[in-house]
Amino acid sequence: MGILLSEHKSFLIRRLIPEEPFLDTQDELHLDDESFQLFTALESKEFNHQSFSFSVVKGENHCEIKADYFVGVDWLGNTGRTIYVEPKINAGLSQYFQNCLSEEENSIKIPDEFSSKDKAEAKEINYLSILLNIMSLPETAKYSKDVIQIDWNAKYIEIDQKDDRLTPFLIIQFLQHLRTIVRKGLKKSYYKKQENLNSKIKGKVLVGQHIKKNILKNRLTSTFCEFQMFGEDHLENRFLKKVLDFATSYIENNPLLFYSNLESIKHILSYCRPAFEHISSDVDEYHLKHIKKNPFFNEYGEAIRIGQFILKRFSYTITKTTQKKIETPPFWIDMPRLFELYFYYQLIEANPGDEKYIHYQFKTYGNHLDFLISKPDYEMVIDTKYKLKYTKSHIHKDIRQVSGYSRLKKVINEMKSKSDKWEEDKMMDCLIIYPHLHLPDEDHCNNPPSLLHNFSIENIKKQFDNKENQIAAYHKVFKLGINLPLA
User: Fold this and answer.
1) At residue 223, does pLDDT exceed 80?
2) Which domain holds residue 213?
């Protein structure tokens, strides 16, 4: 049995106590002693040694499994059960947080009625649309590698094809890398070709095959040869063509899995196909499994790496792209990281020519700032927080973190290097970017949240004058919400 959750939701496993009434619900399950014992050894699942894909809180007679900011499918330890976390957030929470003010972190308690309404009010985040945007820019695409974690060594999990989240994610990553390669032009290289030549010899004669194909068949004027050619029909391009065939078959057989992004994906396919029209996809499984990237062509590296994942996902058998029941390796998608890169994409797109002033993952003394803006007169530290709570509240720990970043000497020195007028004792602006789920009735709210639509540095600075974007308890600390695309 699998446990189905959405982001920020919990599931409770209880020990069945004799003579006590119980009722299994969509958020709770009662087990006998033997079955419950399997959960006593269950531990939280790490993601890249920095956070947890899901967390486990255990008591004497219960075990609570909490989904947080990750989407994916995994085994629950050795219990024989699985967990499946959907990219859905309860839209009702967005409205709820608008009517609640909190002074301390975790002081807001979610009312019980939300549990019974989750299915009706849950809004699915269009994570594929976010990924399409991220992968469309080289500046953001290069950071997408760590967004997903796949455990290829674990036992695969059987799911319905309609619940497949991993394959669409990998296919979009691959197609966007492929588009970059096609835009630059396919690389050319030397490759070996075997051909039965008439009345001539080229390269070396393959004696065994020459005897089989010509001598035994009395074709005395033909010679079977192997020779080198220079062109685009080499192993790496053949590999990409093979993966492109798999991706095309999957998209054609499962269009609903790509939501409203289908037209954009078809456009990428139409753009890439002509470049591979004269490339063969005839490459054996051994070479597919052992192909290695060429360090002199970096743009091929990620496309080949993700292409290997896609073929491995289908066990190198294209007919598996049409199956209704599939087996998937355990995987997790880091939604906060995806949100962070989505904002980075918006910054780059809205500020052409100012890229040198936008520092992503600025590193200093073991700290990693999400964003540092060093443009003269617009200096600020920006931190992204994938938390709905900021709709009408704030978290003190987050504010202390972003404020501390603005006091780092390396940050101050960066400001000095960009502007001679920068005063060392000047207090820098601090900004928290948070997600927002737009609800239809918010247009009629008395005090709707102020959302960011124009991501130019100048416009971001202008938003600080709006009182709704100011965190009243702090000086020069602001927050801005951005809409997430919904499926």
Assistant:
1) yes
2) 189-231
